[in-house]
Amino acid sequence: MRQELLHVIAGSVFANSDAQGDMEVDPQQPVGLFAFDTRFLSHWVLRIDGERINALSRDDMTYFETRFFLVPGAASHYVDADVSIIRHRSIHDCFHEKITVLNHSAQPAEFTVRMEMGSDFSDIAELGLRQRTVEATADSANNQLVLRYQRDRFVRQTTVRSTLPVEVDEGGMTFRIRIDAEGQWETDLHVAMTMGGEDGQDMRAHLKSHQWAVRTGMREDLADWMDRAPQLVAERRGLEEMYRGSLADLAALRYRPLSYDDRVPVAGLPWTMWLCGRHSIITSLQTMAFTPELAHATLRMLALMQGGQLDDDIDEEPGKILAHLRYGESGAFGDRANALYYGSADTTPLFVVLLDEYERWSGDADLVRELRHPARMALDWIDEYGDLTGDGYVRYQRRNERYGAINQVWKDSPESITDANGRQPAFPRATCEVQGYAYDAKMRGARLAREFWGDPAYADRLEREAAALKERFNRDFWLPHREYYALALDPYGEPADALSSNIGHLLWSGIVPDDRAQAVAEHLVGSRLFGGWGVRTFATGQRSYNPMGSHLGAVWPADNALIAAGLRRYGFDTQAATIAAAIFDMAQTLGGAVPEMIAGHERRLTKYPVQLPAAGRPQAWSSGALLMLLSTMLGLRPTGDNLLVNPAVPAGFGRLDLLDIPGRWGHSDAYARDRSTAHRARPRER
């Protein structure tokens, strides 16, 4: 099996290494030091007297800080070793590594400590595909090595500095040291990452502030983040630890886009360490009861980047909400449509959903009024640009045929939208869940227009349009002989009749009539979709089903969180509890950060969740999924200035206490026990 990568992370800046702390190019994995979609270090290898080092143990202190305990040479040298090494690594705007060499013998000893250094400045979207000419400048007088890449005005630079005098060459730094008996030697290496040259964006912390101060500030920030979130007290063993771990993962995945002050969630490690509109919105919805500041920052950022013109290269349209924002070389030069890109059919209605949900929880009417124009533009987009065939459905079809996303929905792999026999519908496609989002956006937009924008006529119009969409949708997407909704419609109105997890999103949006909800719920927890570890993305018995396929059979925690919330919306508490228990079992069995997805094998077959190589960890909307499931189990719902609690806790969870839930009511506590009856939240003075 491939060796697990170890990481330190702070927003979009992260470093992946092997168990020894070394970084060497791997064509299959993103190994190295990355920031804003560029690899600033591709080679970072420590040697003692010419020998590679090997790991004894590791102390993962926080998400941004770790320590490696090492010895030189092969495993046979471990017993009674005369020398050992500690690598203390941390990351913020810069990368910092303190190297400590300890002499355990009763005699002084001399060593040659060599750190090999290099960078290929690869864009993470195309690792190893492009050869770059890198200029290396060795500066022993200033104890630094500068690595620089420039293509026209695109400049990336890595500067490595030592706090001690050192021999510097174009391939790294060499320390020739003498350590007293039972003594130690140490040096600090600072790696600064610069974008745009001397006048560009410098991502390093000033050395005068010292890395200790940076780490101290980050620890305080993490402690403050954890303190502001509600406190969970749970009888179920391990649940509190999973909760705190999810909060810490979410803290790690916050970053500030350039020229923006607030921190928004990136999608996740390792392949999507940038702003993704869909991920940020869903994560904000999932965490509303816990970390509402994510929603505020996400709404303002996406409103700032909202589409304002027609641009086929990046699929931009007036009112459309961003799909993703990246800073890599390939996007900067148009080699790929991945810098500023709008190819997403669902982010725009979801933006309105998030704005309304945020106000319900926070009571922040000022933001609703501030974002009135972006919200109305988003609602207008649904009908003006989203309806590509004039049939009243939001559809998608890429206009950049070279690099545009083929499937512009959450199931975005090229083969993910198919019928039961494996045939893919023609474009433009209308997937079922996007129609639910559009319906929900119109209903929520009507509330905002009536209560905050002073426009009751517009509110009435949106409600009429939502009612017409619901009627039309239930006529065209419903498959009466199968009693579920088609995955998609082709441009001629023919359904792609696959049974998929998307139908659970329809319950979440409220577009399903009450008399059809029972059938949908039974499919979601039936044997074809539910395998014991959660709801699969694609049901068994269909030609394209593959338990290893990310959107054709795998289980996604984020998908399941929305499904469970939808089931509770329609009163299917037992089914929601079944799904919640399965996801918590999966997360607890695996331990650590919640993976993006797992294989959809039957639980009775595998006995252990099967992880997939393509699945990232940590992922913002996977960590957020545990929080949303917790909120769903407790039945948290804002109603005016009160927080209502209506628990449906799975058997075996015992008592759950969630203390200091923030909202327009101040802070409240929620109490529940498995198989509990409804409870009301108790306001609390903090």
Automatic annotation (TrEMBL):
All residue ranges annotated as the Putative glycogen debranching enzyme N-terminal domain in the record: 11-189
InterPro entries attached to this UniProt entry: 6-hairpin_glycosidase_sf, 6hp_glycosidase-like_sf, GDE_N_bis, MGH1-like_GH
Mannosylglycerate hydrolase MGH1-like glycoside hydrolase domain location: 392-589
Name of the molecule in the record: Amylo-alpha-1,6-glucosidase
Annotated organism of origin: Micromonospora zamorensis
